[in-house]
Amino acid sequence: MLLSAFDFRHNAIGFLRLAFAALVVFSHAFTLGGFGDDPVSRWSGEHEDLGNIAVAGFFVLSGFLITRSAERARTVPRFLWHRFLRIFPAFWVCLVVTALVLAPVVALLEGRSLAGYVAAAGDSPWRYLVVNADLTMRQYGVAGLLSQVPYPRAFDGSLWTLRFEFGCYLAVGVLAAVGLVRRRRSVVAALTAVLYLAYAVPVALDGVVKLPFPFDVVVRGNDRLVAELIVYFFAGATAYLYRDRIRLTRALGIAGLVISAVALHYPIYGLVLPIGFSAATLWLAAELPLRDVDRRFDLSYGLYIYAFPLQQIAAECGLSRLGVAVSTAVPLAGALAMAAGSWVLVERPALALKEATPPALRWLLEPRRARP
Questions:
Q1: Positive or negative CA dihedral for 269, 324, 156, 165?
Q2: Is residue 279 part of a domain?
Q3: CB-based contacts of 337: which residues, under 8 Å, 6+ apart?
Q4: What contacts 300, CB < 8 A, 6 or more positions away?
C-alpha cells in the first residue's frame, strides 16, 4: 500500500511504542543488573544494543507523527504548545517522584536517615529538580545514593533522550514556520539526506581510516547516539512528507527487518539501519493487527521514564541474583503501574489542555484575539 493510505485512527503505533519501551527495559536489565551486554550488543560487536534500536524506533514514529502534527496545527506556537504538554508535565512529575519518593526509599534501604538525605550537599534532591527541569540532564545522581550497584549513581538514565526528542520537535517547528513542511518538502528531504550521510559515512569508515574533524565527533560515544536518533527522526518526518510516493509492502517490511539484523554484525550497519529499520518500523505500524492499544491508556511514555529508577532499586535490593528475567519482569510490572498513574493523573489531563489558551500565553497562541 502507499504510505498515504496509512490509517492514523487505527494503527499499531501504540503497540510498537509500548513494545519499544519494554525492549529498553529488557536491554537495561543487562547493564543495570550486571549481566554484561544484551544479545544485540553482542551480535553487533557493541556498536549497538537493543535499547538503542528500540529508542531509534521511537524516533522514527515520532518523526512521522510530529510532522503530521506540525502540518495540521493552526499555528506553529499551537504546535509547540501541544508538544510541550506531551513531554514536560509528565517529565517534571517524574523528577519530583524520583527525588521525593524513590530516592528516599533508596536512602532508607542504604541505612541513611531522611533528614540526612534532605540536607545532602552537592547532588542534593533539590538541585536534581532544578538543574534537570529543562530536559537537559545535568545531574543523574541524588545525595550520593546507588554507589554500589553495577551502574552507579544514576537514578534515571533514560531521560537523556528527551532533550533531543524535544529538540527535533523544535526543528520541525522552525521548518513549519518557514513553510517547508507544507510547501517545500524537497528541502526537508535534502536535509535528511545530509544528516544521514553525515552520520552513516563516518560510522562506516570508523576504524578503516582516520576521520578528520568534524566527522570524528559523530563516532564518539553519546555523540554518535545523538546523531543516530536525529537521523531516525527525520527519516520518519521525510516518510510522512513523501507518503504519496512511498509504497510499503510485506516484502519490503520483512526485508528491512532481516537486512537490518544482518547489517548490525558489520561496519555497514550505519548505512543500512536508518533506511531498512525505518521502513520496517513504519510497515509494522501500518500492518500489525495489534491496533489501538493506546486508545484509552497510553503507557509507553510513563514506562520509559519510570522503569530505569525501578530497575536501579531492584539492583539495590539484590534482585539481580535471581537472573535477568526477574530483573526485567519485576521492574517492568512496577513501571507499568506507575505509567498507568502517570497517564491518568498527569498525561491525559495535560493533553486535555491542547486547545486551551492560558491567559499568560494568549499573545502567543491566539495573537489575533490578543490585539485590542
A1: positive
A2: yes
A3: none
A4: 14, 17, 18, 20, 21, 294, 339
Euclidean distance between CA atoms 221 and 219, whole angstroms: 6
Q: Is the peptide bond before 150 cis (omega within 30 degrees of 0)?
A: no
Residues in the chain: 372
Whether 48 maps to a domain, the answer reads: yes
CB 193 within 8 Å of CB 128: no
Q: Give the Cα separation of 167 and 180 in Å (integer).
A: 17
CA distances, 351 to each of 50, 74, 195, 303, 334 (Å): 30, 17, 32, 17, 24
What the block records as the C-alpha cell of 35 is 549481566
Task: Classify residue 98: in a domain, yes or no.
Answer: yes
372 within domain boundaries:
no
The pTM of this model reads 0.94
| 279: exposed, middle or buried (Cβ count in 10 Å: 0-12, 13-18, 19+) | buried
pLDDT digits (tens, 9 = 90+) for 196-206: 988 888 887 77
CA–CA dist 46, 224 (Å, integer): 13
Confidence of residue 372 (pLDDT cuts 50, 70, 90): very low
Note whether 28 and 248 are within 8 A (CB).
Answer: no
Three-state secondary-structure class, residue 206: strand
Per the CB < 8 A criterion, the answer to whether 195 and 265 are in contact is no
Domain residues for 117? 3-367
Among 17, 9, 20, smallest CA distance to 68 is for 9
For 328-359, what is each residue's pLDDT tens digit?
999 999 999 999 999 999 999 999 999 888 88
Mean pLDDT taken over the chain: 92
Specify whether the CB–CB gap between 313 and 304 falls below 8 A. no
**Pairwise CA distance, residues 285 & 12, whole Å:** 5
Q: Is the distance from CB of 362 to CB of 81 less than 8 angstroms?
A: no
DSSP 3-state of 285: helix
- The single-letter code of the amino acid at 163 is R
Name the residue among 338, 348, 233, 352 with its Cα closest to residue 298: 348
